[in-house]
Write a structure and sequence with these properties.
Layout lengths: L3 E9 L4 H13 L4 E6 L3 E3 L10 E10 L3 H15 L13 E7 L4 E2 L4 E2 L8 H11 L11 H7 L6 E3 L8
Antiparallel strand pairs: 1-4, 1-5, 2-4, 3-4, 3-8, 6-7
Helix pairs in contact: 1-2, 3-4
Length: about 170
């Protein structure tokens, strides 16, 4: 069975943000046909899109899975619901958000999921933690590495490392 190397972006800006990120990692570890490899540090960032809201905590995770993108997305949305994500507006505040960023070298789109994530190269709050764990990862559409994407990113939202860490064991 084929296994894919997948990178996820996690974010939270409501309530106990670090606790929501940690719970997401714990829940992701329980997904069948998935193995959590490692996570980035946790970063605090300005909101993106809708700026009149609390700051986010963001992190990235690398997983290996045999699941197809729609199946993985379904399981990640289940994780968000179990953690307590309430419906929110586009770019609005949220308890937890889990996005599929890059799915090995796959380029895929259906009515629910697009990989690689269509806004990846425009989001500093994703590129900085992703660069920490996968600087040499090649974006399957642009052909650029995450390091190159981060250097070229025009998003100037503030982002800083925190002392938080996500426990994966």
């Amino acid at each position: 069975m084929k296994t894919y190397r997948v990178f996820l972006g996690l974010g939270s800006n409501l309530g106990e943000r670090h606790r929501f990120l940690q719970r997401a990692i714990q829940e992701i570890r329980l997904i069948r046909d998935l193995r959590l490899v490692w996570t980035s540090g946790v970063y605090e960032s300005d909101p993106y899109g809708k700026v009149a809201q609390p700051k986010f905590l963001n992190a990235c995770a690398e997983v290996e899975t045999s699941l197809a993108p729609p199946d993985l997305l379904e399981r990640l949305k289940d994780v968000e619901q179990r953690i307590g994500r309430s419906a929110s507006e586009r770019w609005g505040p949220r308890e937890i958000d889990i996005d599929i960023l890059v799915y090995d070298g796959l380029v895929f789109a259906d009515d629910r999921v697009t990989v690689p994530h269509p806004d990846l190269e425009h989001r500093r709050f994703v590129l900085v933690p992703l660069r920490e764990i996968a600087a040499d990862l090649i974006h399957p559409v642009s052909g650029m590495t995450v390091e190159e994407l981060a250097a070229a990113c025009t998003d100037r939202g503030a982002i800083k490392a925190t002392s938080y860490h996500l426990l994966i064991s």
